[in-house]
Design a protein that fits this description.
60 residues, single chain, mainly beta
């Protein structure tokens, strides 16, 4: 039987997209180790609608 790991999938959503007034959302799926990173993840990712790199935060 396979051992359960500490890695979980998380959804990252753009923080600047809602305030820009443009329709749609920018979301990415990533994985993190919940034992090493218990806090919410923040990464700079490319937003194709705004055509620039923005901060994407983990959502539940």
């Amino acid at each position: 039987m396979a051992k359960k790991g500490n890695r979980v999938q998380v959804i990252l959503e753009c923080t600047e997209h809602k305030s820009s007034g443009v329709s749609g959302t920018s979301r990415y799926i990533s994985t993190k180790n919940k034992k090493n990173t218990p806090d919410r993840l923040e990464l700079k990712k490319f937003n194709p609608v705004l055509k620039k790199y923005t901060v994407h935060k983990e959502i539940k």
